[in-house]
């Protein structure tokens, strides 16, 4: 391909990036929400960039469009697409929502804070294809994969040591005030859920979220956000989950609390998805998050995330795992263009 047809990360609109390193083609596939200004295709969906070396990327192609699905329950969103190989096929998870499909309003939360925003259907759908380049077809167009009475997002695939597949997702702070991470078992063909959701942890379990709030102010201040889970098995057999949230560290003149988007992680030393989960301090701040880990073809562990939250671009970090501890080795500005 001519150099003029290639793109680099600073030029690529990129929210919630997800990389598949495909050994068959020796190409990295970078999935994100469809952006018509780049792909040339209108509509809610998923597009993919491809690269042989993580620096130069082809212009994206669209692999999923909500409008092309028959009787799909939602047509907005297209957030946080992920693609996983399973049983010889490829499964796309992406989050859709429909503001015209209300769901019951939950009771006040543990702080006595009532639900303020009209609840509507939001959740991750599952679609399947025989190719990493699609097209992907929704498995069940009538509903999201997690329970439809819950406002959820950012579903990801986890397979436990027994071979049981799970979908792990964030239960929206919009519905819970204190956002949670939850998991639910999937059928062997990933087409339906089995049983009830399992609570993994709450956003407020990360005690460092509020540690920069000055003394004298309450340290239990909603909302607490959970975003972007991704699971990774560590060398010592622990289970690691990347996730993102907002660190509360700015007090406004009106007493309001705000903060920046951060990339953090938690570990389950038992190795089980059910935990218990221990929270670790943030890996990257600077309005960065929704990262994921992948191995390069020369077996380096990399993390890609987006920064800033608005008008996001992809940033790459070389990582190291020591036992169950994850740390940043260096920022790969040579690949992501700096900034």
Automatic annotation (TrEMBL):
Highest rank taxon of the organism: Bacteria
Pathway membership, UniProt: Glycan metabolism; L-arabinan degradation
CDD domains: GH43_Bt1873-like
Pfam families: Glyco_hydro_43
Alphabetized UniProt keyword annotations: Glycosidase, Hydrolase
Recorded family membership: Belongs to the glycosyl hydrolase 43 family.
Official protein name in the record: Glycoside hydrolase
Species of origin: Streptomyces umbrinus
């Amino acid at each position: 391909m001519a150099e003029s047809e290639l793109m680099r990360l600073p030029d690529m609109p990129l929210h919630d990036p997800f990389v598949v390193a495909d050994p068959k083609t020796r190409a990295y596939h970078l999935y994100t929400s469809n952006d018509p200004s780049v792909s040339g295709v209108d509509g809610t969906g998923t597009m993919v960039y491809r690269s042989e070396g993580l620096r130069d990327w082809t212009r994206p192609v669209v692999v999923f469009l909500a409008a092309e699905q028959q009787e799909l329950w939602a047509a907005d969103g297209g957030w946080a697409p992920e693609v996983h190989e399973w049983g010889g096929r490829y499964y796309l998870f992406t989050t859709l929502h429909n503001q015209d499909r209300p769901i019951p309003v939950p009771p006040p939360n543990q702080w006595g804070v009532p639900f303020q925003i009209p609840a509507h259907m939001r959740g991750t759908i599952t679609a399947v294809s025989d190719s990493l380049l699609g097209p992907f077809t929704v498995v069940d167009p009538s509903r999201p994969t997690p329970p439809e009475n819950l406002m959820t997002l950012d579903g990801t695939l986890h397979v436990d040591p027994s071979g049981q597949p799970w979908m792990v997702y964030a239960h929206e702070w919009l519905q819970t005030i204190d956002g949670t991470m939850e998991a639910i078992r999937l059928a062997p063909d990933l087409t339906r859920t089995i049983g009830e959701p399992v609570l993994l942890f709450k956003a407020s379990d990360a005690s460092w979220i509020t540690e920069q709030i000055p003394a004298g102010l309450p340290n239990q201040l909603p909302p607490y956000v959970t975003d972007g889970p991704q699971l990774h098995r560590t060398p010592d057999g622990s289970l690691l989950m990347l996730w993102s949230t907002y660190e509360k560290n700015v007090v406004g003149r009106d007493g309001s609390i705000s903060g920046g988007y951060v990339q953090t992680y938690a570990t389950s030393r038992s190795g089980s998805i059910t935990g218990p989960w221990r929270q670790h301090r943030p890996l990257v701040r600077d309005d960065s998050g929704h990262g994921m880990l992948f191995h390069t073809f020369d077996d380096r562990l990399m993390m890609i995330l987006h920064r800033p939250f608005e008008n996001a671009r992809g940033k790459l970090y070389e990582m190291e795992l020591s036992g169950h501890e994850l740390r940043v080795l260096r920022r790969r500005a040579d690949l992501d263009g700096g900034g």
